[in-house]
Amino acid sequence: MKHYIGLEFLSILTTASARSGSNLNAVLASLALGIHAQEGRPEPLPLPLLASLLEQLETRASRGRFIFALAEAFNFDAMPAVSAFLVSAHSLRQLNALLEWVPVLVHPELRFDIEDHGSAISLHPRVDSEDPRLIDHPLLVELMMAIVAHLSAQIAPNMVGARRVTFKHAPTSAPALYETYFRCPVGFHSDANTMFGDNQLLDGILPGSLPHAHKSAEETIRQHLLGDGLAPPLTMQIDYLFRQHLSLFSAGLAGLARAMNMHPRALQRQLSFAGSSYSMLLRRIRHEHAVNMLRNPNLDIDTIALKLGFTERRSFTLAFRQWQGCTPREYRSAAKRVLTT
Questions:
Q1: Which of 183, 203, 223 represents a domain boundary (last residue)?
Q2: Where does the HTH araC/xylS-type domain start and stop, copy by copy (predicted)?
Q3: Taking the alpha carbons of 246, 337, 125, 211 in that order, is the dihedral positive or negative?
């Protein structure tokens, strides 16, 4: 099956390739990627193909990092409501919603987790994939971090950005390049991919603050980009059900379909159309719940495993290690250290 990239993404890739000296034509030819010139958005590229595209363009770059050039070229110009939502925000905190919409607006297997630690806040880019090679793929993670840094600097040029950035992988280029781009200390071989910031900065008034325009843009996004104007998107409905009924973690696809008054095959078809699957959603939602539960010292790990539908603690530990690169106990200890620093 031939895969295609849209004109908007092609424009961003072309700009980034020109800035970094990468050969876009050669890479598109090597991956047999076509150009989608019809109306509407093409299907998202399969994540392994997107990763290969980034790898080849990064390798061929002759002037700096392609990934950073791509982040600088990234925009939502093809989605006017999203652009308006960004530039009219009253504060950076209002833009947290945009991070929650990444799976719908950008790619169904890319998302962000946000943790509030009181005076500090941390942002974790996450790749939802069944392929272990992609879960913490360095270029995917770096691109997500770099885009957040770029958009923040665009919207709030006079505010201090990230306080610190950490990556689980080794540097893919000179460490100094990272600190120049992110304008803060950058660490590697860390327990988690994280961007740390000061919570109070999120409430500073932005220069483009237009509350009425911001509200109107958000309504347009929710009605025409995230859903059908009548009900929230399918994945959001499922997120809500799992939050309200933890028993669904043990109910399987059939149990979830019953809770939604749907036939299992119909639910599978709709999830496929949305670029997702039951196993992908279950993994993501389990991961999100696990991270939140582990921050509650009153819940022991065996209880958390049972609540999330695992038959034994060992299965939960193996799954969590795939998600985070560490055991639940190690994650809980690391989260506790962050709160006390």
A1: 203
A2: 236-334
A3: positive
